[in-house]
Amino acid sequence: MSEASDPFKRDLLAVLPNLRAFAVSLCGNADRADDLVQDAILKAWGAQDRFEIGTNIKAWIFTILRNEFYSQARKKGREVQDSDGVFTEKLAVHPGQYGSLDLQDFSKALNQLPEDQREALLLVGASGFAYEEVAAICECRVGTIKSRVSRARARLQEILQIDGEADFGPDKTSAATTLRSFAS
């Protein structure tokens, strides 16, 4: 099939200059833009069976390119460049049993709360409901729910003997041991 008789290919080629200009404006770098255009064209080519001839191919391919740009940006945001291994050498993982023990302690402390406070705290904190929604569920005022949650949090801190951020995570002795073992 010649280029002239394949409308998808013809229309795709006609859009390339504008597509590249858009990619350069997104990336700010011609090389990255060329790679982005290539990725978008490959995706479009692979999905051409989903494109309806006669519809706006320019809008379709620009959307593919834009989505690919943001997908790559999200992926890049999660990656850490560590070609010389500096970050990897500093990585340390604390033993897993601490988290399990902390969870057991928390569960015991949670069970010591009065039922109305525990219910409010679980609905707001664990289930993610807004105070207004919890008030409707519990058939009481919003202020009552806020008070129950506040008292529950304060009581949990008291039971678990939490005074500040330093009380979260591994204790100082095990943290120092873990760092020493990975530093050597």
Automatic annotation (TrEMBL):
Record's protein name: RNA polymerase sigma factor
NCBIfam families named among the record's database cross-references: PRK12516.1, PRK12547.1, sigma70-ECF
Domain RNA polymerase sigma-70 region: 15-78
Domain annotation RNA polymerase sigma factor 70 region 4 type: ranges: 104-156
Domain of life: Bacteria
Keyword Transcription in record: yes
Organismal lineage: Bacteria, Pseudomonadati, Pseudomonadota, Alphaproteobacteria, Hyphomicrobiales
GO-annotated biological processes: DNA-templated transcription initiation
GO molecular function, one term: sigma factor activity
Keywords, ordered alphabetically: DNA-binding, Sigma factor, Transcription, Transcription regulation
Family statement drawn from the similarity comment of this UniProt entry: Belongs to the sigma-70 factor family. ECF subfamily.
Pfam family, one: Sigma70_r4_2
